[in-house]
Amino acid sequence: MNVLFIFSRHATDPRDSTLTKDLSDAFAASGANVYVMTMLEKRNNQPTKMSLENGYNVLRVKTGNYFNCRTRAEKVKTILTLPNCFVSTAKKYLEGVSIDLIITHTPFMSSRKIILPLKKYFNCPAQLILWDIFPQNAWDIGIIKNRMLFNFFKRAEIKMLQSYEQIWCMSDGNVSYLRKHYPQLSNIAINKLYNSAMIKPIPAIDRLTIRKRFGYTVDDIIAIFGGNMGVPQALENILTLASKAQSKLEHAKFLFVGKGTETPRLISLANAMGLDNVQFIEQLPREDYEYITAVADIGIVSLDARFTVPNFPSKTTDYFKLGLPILASLDACAAADYGNFLTDIAQAGRFALAGDSEELLERYFELYSDAGLRAKLGENGRDFYEQELDSFKAFQQIQNQFMKYQHD
Prior knowledge:
The two termini are 17 Å apart. The strands form two sheets. The protein has an eight-stranded mixed β-sheet with strand order 3-4-2-1-5-6-7-8. It has a six-stranded parallel β-sheet with strand order 11-10-9-12-13-14, with helices on both faces. It is globular, with a radius of gyration of 21 Å. The chain has helices at 19-29, 72-93, 112-122, 136-140, 147-161, 172-181, 207-213, 236-246, 263-272, 286-294, 315-321, 332-345, 357-369, 371-388, 391-407, and strands at 2-7, 33-41, 49-53, 56-63, 101-105, 126-129, 166-169, 189-192, 221-226, 252-257, 278-281, 298-302, 326-330, 349-353. It has two domains: 2-198 and 390-407, Glycogen Phosphorylase B (Rossmann fold); 207-387, 3-Layer(aba) Sandwich (Rossmann fold), CATH 3.40.50. It contains 15 helices and 14 strands.
């Protein structure tokens, strides 16, 4: 099977582990002929190139800048020009290559202006990994406020989704939501596919040395949030938790690793609240991030209370991989889906409704005060990761669905 993955990012270091890279690695290790097409941003000052990386072909396409742009106009320009750039480059570098299946993900790499021309060119089906439900998620939290603009994006979203033979959702709630709210997709296969990763052992590290490096003691209970810090994460709710914990719990520490549009505001808010139990680290190499996460005690998930679409935070896999119990602040929709997964299916964490600071404090205190509970929930998460979140299992699911499509 010859598979073309279209990813927004693809690490150059073969040791790096990301959701998308682990999936393409699993395909290649399972015998598929893998091609990856990904962005090579203008800021890298390098031309488009295709090279053998980690045993398969990676086509890095020179595009405008998309991540961490200085202006919104720069990002929009990249989004508008990217489809034509990807399609023309694929036709040039993959001419004569027989592609059996295209796999991509949201957002924006899933554009029908990319997928439809490439499906036609390679005469093959395409599968979508649905990571977000846009524009509804942006409407929920006020990023889109104009109804006409929302309707425009909604029509584009439906056409985009109709471009695929298979849509993979991250949870049962995602699957149910699509089937209920998108009758236009009745003839398209919609199934669950957990975010997956290569199964690796928890790194053997010197916990005390790493804690000292980041300013923590052996007695501190570290709750870590890693990832994007934007409006959807509503991290002010976690700062409120830190404030309540600071006055009562001596060793309660909160660590935020990452950056986003809300980072400056969150830092200012933490300073205004006088939080000396909170630390922000803008960016860490992947290896260092895994080290500090591995010596933390609790993994934080946080979502805005206004969401009406199911969300399944991708950082769950990272926390499970490292054996961390999860504390989640969730909107009502996610609570019914992800919250149920967390407490009843994986049995790996606790959650409270976003905005209910007292309930969140109670759930936090359960974890803070009971090392045995933290260990048990962390072990459950690790077990679920090993049994259900293996990239090779994801490969098998995708391959089976592809074979089913071939026989229909």
